[in-house]
C-alpha cells in the first residue's frame, strides 16, 4: 500500500472519530453522593503493527462510599477490537481509588490473538531480516500502589501471561539461534515499583514530573519456566513555554538479564510512545535507553500541533551505530476541553522510512 493512500485513510478515520458518538447515562443511587457513569462508544485506530482496527468500548466510572466528589473516580473498561491484519484484542483494564487516591489498584484482564515482529538482537539487526511470530495469550495484571508521602508512591504487583506461540519461522532467527522462550509457555512475574507524580493534569500536564521505576522478577518453578528480572525507569518532565505551549521530555531505560525470554526483552517501538517512526520492535536488546522531547502548541480552536525528536541507544555497544535517531510531527483534536482528552495523529521519521499513528491522547 502506498503512503499517499495510507495518509488518506488516516484522515478518513480521523473524520470518523470526530463524528463518533458517546452514549452516557448517569444513575443516582440511594445515597446522593454516589454516582455511577456509564459510557459506550465505537473505537477505531491505526498503528503500523495492527493496520486499521475497529471495535467498541464500554466503561463504568464510580466512587466508593465516602470518597470525595472531587477525587479521581474508579473505572472499569471492557473493550474489543479486530484489526485488518486479523488480530483480536479483548481487554478489560481497571483502576480503583481509595482514601482520596492514597491507595490505588490498577490492572488488566485480557485475551489477545496477535503477532509480533522480530529482527534479531542488537543495534546491527537489519530491516530485511524481519520475521513474524504469532501468539495467542491471556493476560492478567494487577498492581497495588500506596501513597508514601506527598507525591511519592510505592507499589507491588504481579503479571501472568500464557504465551502460546502458534506460528514461528522454522528457519528464522529465533529458531536458528535457539533463543530462550521460543517454546512459549506460562509466565508469572512479581513486581516492585516506586512512583513520583506531581503533574498538574493526567492527560495533558503543563508542569511537574512523573517517574516510574519498576522491577519485574520471574522465578523458575513458580508457574514460570525461566528465572530472570527486568528493570525499567520511565521519567517525564513538563514545562510551560509562554502561556499556551508546553515542552515535554521523556527519559527511558530498560534492562533485562541474559536469561530473559526473547519476547520480554526491551525493545524500540512507538507502541509505548517511544521512538515514533520505527516499526514495531525494530530493535531488541538486553538494554535500551531512549530520550525524546516534544513541543506542544495550539493551532486553531480545538486543533493543536506537536513537533518531536528522539534518540535511542541499543545495547551496551559504545559505538555510534548503537544510536538511532527519530522525529516527526503531530496533529491533535481536543475531544473534551476540561479533561484534555485528544485524538492523536502522528507521522514519525527515521533513517529507514516513516510511519503513521492514529490513536488517543499524548504519547507521554
Brief characterization of the structure:
The chain is mainly beta and 364 residues long. It has two helices and 19 strands.
Question: Would you mind describing this structure in some detail?
Answer:
- The protein is mostly beta strands and 364 residues long.
- It has a single domain (3-360), classed as Porin, CATH 2.40.160.50.
- The protein has two helices and 19 strands.
- The strands form two sheets. The chain has a 17-stranded antiparallel beta sheet, covered by helices on one side. A two-stranded antiparallel ribbon has the order 13-14.
- The longest helix has 17 residues, at 3-19.
- The model is unreliable at 1-34 (pLDDT under 50).
Key features?
17-stranded antiparallel sheet, 59% strand, 6% helix, disordered N terminus, 2 helices, globular, two-stranded antiparallel sheet, 19 strands, mainly beta, Porin, 364 residues, single chain
CATH superfamily descriptor: membrane protein fhac: a member of the omp85/tpsb transporter family
- Helix/strand/pairing class, anyone? mainly beta
Largest sheet: 17 strands, antiparallel
Uncertain regions spanning at least 5 consecutive residues: 1-34
Tell me, rounded to a whole number, the average pLDDT.
85
Radius of gyration equals: 21 Å
CATH top level is: Mainly Beta
How many β-strand runs? 19
Return the CATH architecture: Beta Barrel
Number of domains: 1
Strand content: over 45%
The arrangement of helices and strands along the chain is HEEEEEEEEHEEEEEEEEEEE
How far from one another are the termini? 29 Å
CATH topology: Porin
Amino acid at each position: 500500500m502506498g503512503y499517499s493512500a495510507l495518509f488518506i485513510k488516516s484522515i478518513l478515520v480521523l473524520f470518523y472519530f470526530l463524528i463518533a458518538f458517546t452514549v452516557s447515562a448517569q444513575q443516582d443511587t440511594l445515597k446522593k453522593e454516589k454516582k455511577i457513569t456509564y459510557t459506550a462508544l465505537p473505537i477505531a485506530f491505526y498503528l503500523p503493527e495492527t493496520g486499521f482496527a475497529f471495535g467498541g468500548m464500554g466503561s463504568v466510572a464510580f466512587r466508593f462510599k465516602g470518597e470525595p466528589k472531587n477525587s479521581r473516580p474508579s473505572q472499569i473498561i471492557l473493550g474489543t477490537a479486530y484489526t485488518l491484519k486479523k488480530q483480536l484484542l479483548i481487554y478489560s483494564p481497571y483502576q480503583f481509588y481509595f482514601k482520596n487516591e492514597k491507595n490505588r489498584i490498577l490492572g488488566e484482564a485480557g485475551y489477545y490473538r496477535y503477532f509480533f515482529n522480530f529482527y534479531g538482537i542488537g543495534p546491527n539487526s537489519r530491516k530485511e531480516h524481519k520475521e513474524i511470530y504469532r501468539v495467542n495469550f491471556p493476560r492478567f495484571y494487577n498492581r497495588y500502589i500506596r501513597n508514601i508521602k506527598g507525591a511519592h508512591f510505592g507499589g507491588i504487583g504481579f503479571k501472568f501471561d500464557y504465551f502460546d506461540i502458534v506460528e514461528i519461522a522454522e528457519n528464522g532467527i529465533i529458531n536458528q539461534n535457539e533463543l530462550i522462550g521460543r517454546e512459549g509457555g506460562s509466565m508469572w512475574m512479581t513486581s516492585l515499583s516506586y512512583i513520583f507524580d506531581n503533574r498538574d493534569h493526567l492527560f495533558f500536564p503543563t508542569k511537574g514530573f512523573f517517574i516510574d521505576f519498576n522491577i519485574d522478577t520471574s522465578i523458575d518453578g513458580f508457574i514460570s519456566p525461566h528465572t530472570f528480572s527486568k528493570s525499567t525507569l520511565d521519567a517525564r518532565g513538563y514545562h510551560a513555554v509562554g502561556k499556551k505551549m508546553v515542552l515535554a521530555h521523556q527519559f527511558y531505560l530498560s534492562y533485562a538479564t541474559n536469561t530473559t525470554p526473547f519476547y520480554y526483552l526491551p525493545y524500540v517501538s512507538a507502541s509505548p510512545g517511544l521512538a515514533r517512526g520505527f516499526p514495531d520492535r525494530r530493535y531488541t536488546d538486553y538494554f535500551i535507553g531512549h530520550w525524546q522531547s516534544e513541543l506542544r502548541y495550539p493551532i486553531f480552536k480545538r486543533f493543536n500541533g506537536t513537533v518531536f525528536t528522539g534518540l535511542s541507544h541499543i545495547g551496551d555497544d559504545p559505538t555510534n551505530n548503537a544510536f538511532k535517531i527519530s522525529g516527526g510531527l503531530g496533529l491533535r483534536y481536543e475531544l473534551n476541553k476540561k479533561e484534555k482528552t485528544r485524538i492523536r495523529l502522528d507521522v514519525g521519521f527515521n533513517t529507514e522510512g516513516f510511519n503513521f499513528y492514529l490513536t488517543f491522547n499524548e504519547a507521554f
